[in-house]
Amino acid sequence: MSLKNRLIDFQINFIDYFNINHKLIGHWIRAFHYNSPIYLFIFILLSPKKLCTFFLLFFFIFILSLFIIFKGCWISSLENKLLKDNVNICDIFLDIFNIDINYKNRFIITLVIGGIYTYLLLFIYYLRFYY
Questions:
Q1: Could you give the angle at which helices 3-17 and 74-83 cross, rounded to 10 degrees?
Q2: Where are the domains of the chain?
Q3: Regarding predicted confidence, which is higher, 90 or 55?
Q4: Distance separating alpha carbons of residues 113 and 116, to the nearest angstrom
Q5: Contact predicate 63/79, CB 8 Å
């Protein structure tokens, strides 16, 4: 069993320990997950430099590292297991461009959109604090 699957199983066992409905917590996790890039964007726009630096370092070191190590987003895998579906935030972009929705294409489009998003965050950070 992979480290990613062990992490997801641990989280599901934790959810089960507190007897939380899987669909309910799955929708809450997905809502926060889908909105987290917006939250980070707002923090970069409004927070002082030290806090922005912390959020960016957290984003780069923690979130991107886990994405690379797990070869995909573990939060999406957790959501899909809790909700018993196979939905990803990138599916809308794949559908718009008439690209097959599968693991490989989801991974590639996530890297493309994530790269654009990262450059946008760094550009805003640069404009706010160094320009």
A1: 50
A2: 3-129
A3: 90
A4: 5
A5: no
Give the Cα separation of 60 and 81 in Å (integer): 26
Q: For residue range 48-59, list pLDDT tens digits in order.
A: 999 888 888 888
Structure token pair of residue 131? 């320009």
Triad 10, 11, 13: Cα angle to 5°? 65
Q: Which of 30, 15, 52 is nearest to 126 (CA)?
A: 52
Report whether pLDDT(91) > 90. yes
- Residue 64's Cα: distance from chain center in Å? 9
Q: Residue 83 and residue 3: Cα distance in Å, rounded?
A: 21
For the chain, what is the largest distance between any 2 Cα atoms, rounded to a whole number of angstroms?
51
Backbone angles phi, psi at 90, to 5 degrees: -80, -10
- Quote the crossing angle between the two packed helices 22-46 and 103-129, to the nearest 10°: 30
Here the tokens at position 10 are 């641990």
What is the Cα–Cα distance from 17 to 14, expressed in whole angstroms? Answer: 5
pLDDT of residue 123: 93
